[in-house]
Amino acid sequence: MKLPINSGKKTGVQDTGTLPAKKQLTTAERLTSSSYTSNISNWFIEKWFLLNGTLAVMILILIFGFLIREGLPALREVGLMEFLTGTRWMPSSPREAGYGALPFILGSVMVTVGALAIAIPWGIATAIFISEVAPKRVKEFLKPIVEVLAIFPSVILGFIALVIVSPIIATVFDLSNGRTALTASIMLAIMALPTIISITEDALNTVPNDFREAAIALGASRWETVKMVVIPAARSGIVASVMLGFGRAVGETMTVLMAAGNALSMPVKDVWNIAIPNFLVSVRTLTANIAIEASDVPWGSLHYSALFVVAMILFVITFTVNLIADILIQRQQGAMRND
């Protein structure tokens, strides 16, 4: 028995010409079985992705919950405002203990802002050169070098800060000790550079060439095209690179520990009776303070609990900055879609 050519339409089977009925039924059964297997696979893959995403969120919540649980005794006894506004950190003092973390908060903000002030223009300019200006051979030479810079262990960069950068800072600014906030900012800027360069370059490369060609056709120069067309189109990716660079800088411990000096005093100076940040003095960051004191503190003591409050402050700062960055990126993408 032979079936007509179009007999496969009702079952979704492609037209294969005149085939024996038994063979066409076998093909339909195989396709049905394949679709069923595919649906099952899609269901498992979807649930697998859902499980991983949920697990990541749960781990984040558990970490924050753990910090709150361990820091709660210090928050109850000392109070959050003492941590945020106090300028004296002496938790082991037998007479009058102090739990002011403001010098560490200010130190972390100073070295991070200083690092970004150096790394953002440097990194974006390098990414523009690699993406828009450099010949292909130069581009292939520069990209691996930038990526290699990211794999340097932080302790090596800290050692370089100790033996090379710190003496230079001390000589240039006539200081007795070159381990300052400026030294730490320079080293953190170098560490944040690979992140900013790589992500910014990827963002620039995603801009369609039609944009560039249209701008050039309208008489724009190469620099005007980059400035007025390419950079605005890649703005969300550039913001993301800066935020990730911020996260890299504010969370760094070892390099800051070796380069910043770790003084407990407030890193400010008075100018016309106004306290302003002083980058030429030693500072201690939130991460460095935890690393220095965590190994010697008695477990379960108030000092132990206070260190978890310091970690909580660092967590909140990082989370807030990332949240703001995400909101800005979403708004930028929404504005581009509306345009």
Roughly what fraction of the amino acids lie in strands?
Answer: under 5%
Apparent shape: globular
The total count of helices amounts to: 12
DSSP strand count: 4
Name the poorly predicted regions. Answer: 1-16
Mean pLDDT over the residues: 84
Strand order of the largest sheet: 1-2
Structural class from helices and strands? mainly alpha
Order of helices and strands: HHEEHHHHHHHHEEHH
- What Rg do the Cα atoms give? 29 Å
Share in helix: over 70%
Largest beta-sheet characterization: 2 strands, antiparallel
Distance between the termini: 62 Å
Question: Would you kindly provide a brief summary of this structure?
Answer:
The chain is mostly helical and 339 residues long.
Could you characterize the architecture of this molecule?
The radius of gyration is 29 Å and the shape is globular. With 339 residues, the protein is mainly α. A hairpin with a 2-residue loop joins strand 3 and strand 4. The longest helix has 57 residues, at 21-77. It has helices at residues 21-77, 80-85, 102-133, 136-149, 154-172, 181-205, 209-217, 222-233, 235-250, 254-259, 286-293, 302-338, and strands at 89-90, 98-99, 268-271, 274-277. It has a two-stranded antiparallel sheet with strand order 1-2. Strands 3-4 form a two-stranded antiparallel sheet.
